[in-house]
Specification:
- This protein is of the alpha/beta class.
- It has one domain: Alpha-Beta Barrel (TIM Barrel), CATH 3.20.20.
- The chain contains 12 helices and 8 strands.
- It has an 8-stranded parallel beta barrel with strand order 1-2-3-4-5-6-7-8, surrounded by 5 helices.
- Helix 3 links the parallel strand 3 and strand 4.
- The chain is globular and about 45 Å long.
- The chain binds 1,3-dihydroxyacetonephosphate (13P).
- 1,3-dihydroxyacetonephosphate binds next to strand 8.
- The site of 1,3-dihydroxyacetonephosphate (13P) has 14 residues, from strand 8.
- This is Triosephosphate isomerase.
Length: about 260
């Protein structure tokens, strides 16, 4: 069975080092040494080093929220995979919808970043998902197909097995409008079907596919209990240690009882 990954995407929060350290300390203390689910936090770039110090000795992974595909050079404002590894990162989020839609990031760009992340030995969390208009226009599968085939182009099955995907319907992000477990499971099954077709059944069975979009303590058990949902990428609720810990606990419950 795939191990669940519960990751907190802090986005552009919090705004001070002190608050970032306090949040990381809260998660670390609350989690202890539990390892039955994988856990990671993704603070803004500037806090990564300090948060890494806090997380020392804990099983919590450290994720960046983006990276560039070149290692070094004249690329003002960018941060590379080897730099992220140097400050302690284990994961990197790529192609978040706030970057795809807010900053014009294409699947081609995500693909370059993904290959660089794998080269740097970071675990990439590649985000995909449709907007409200696309869902209403029955374009969900077409959008997922474009984002999957574009973002994962040229990967070997072995490389693909090491990629984490995050299905995040844009209409559910930060809106309180969570996809129902049925809607989420249907999208996840579609994603796993695509993986099986392109990379083979054995690889598809290994890929961790998270759900993201208004995951909260009160809906986490239902979502995480779905057969093809292998974790959560949590935004707002990851900014409060007690809420994030409650979502992790939901993952632990689902793991302990086993999936259907
Ligand atoms: O975008 C998200 C995680 O990457 C989800 O954000 P919310 O949990 O705030 O909806």
């Amino acid at each position: 069975m795939r191990t669940l990954l519960i990751a907190g995407n802090w986005k552009l929060n919090p705004t001070t080092t002190e608050a970032a350290v306090a949040l990381a300390e809260g998660v670390k203390t609350g989690l202890g040494t539990a390892t039955d689910v994988h856990v990671a936090v993704a603070p803004p770039f500037v806090f990564l080093g300090q948060v890494d110090g806090v997380l020392e000795g804990s099983p919590i992974g450290l994720s960046a929220q983006d990276m560039y595909w070149e290692n070094s050079g004249a690329f003002t404002g960018e941060v590379s995979g080897c730099m992220l590894v140097d400050v302690g990162c284990t994961h990197v989020i790529l192609g978040h919808s706030e970057r795809r839609h807010g900053m014009g990031e294409t699947s081609e760009v995500v693909n370059k970043k993904l290959k660089a992340a794998l080269e740097a030995k970071l675990i990439p969390i590649v985000c995909i998902g449709e907007t409200k208009e696309e869902r209403l226009g029955e374009q969900t599968e077409a959008v997922l197909l474009e984002q999957l085939s574009g973002s994962l182009a040229g990967l070997s099955p072995e490389q693909a097995a090491g990629v984490v995907l995050a299905y995040e319907p844009v209409w559910a992000i930060g809106t309180g409008l969570t996809a129902t477990p049925e809607q989420a499971q249907a999208a996840h099954a579609f994603i796993r079907g695509w993986l099986a077709k392109v990379f083979g059944e054995a690889t598809a069975a290994r890929v961790v596919v998270q759900y993201g979009g208004s995951v909260k303590p009160d809906n986490a058990v239902q979502l995480l209990g779905c057969p093809d949902i292998d974790g959560a990428l949590v935004g707002g609720a990851s900014l409060k240690a007690s809420d994030f810990l409650a979502i992790i606990k939901a993952g632990q419950e689902v793991t302990a009882r086993g999936k259907a």
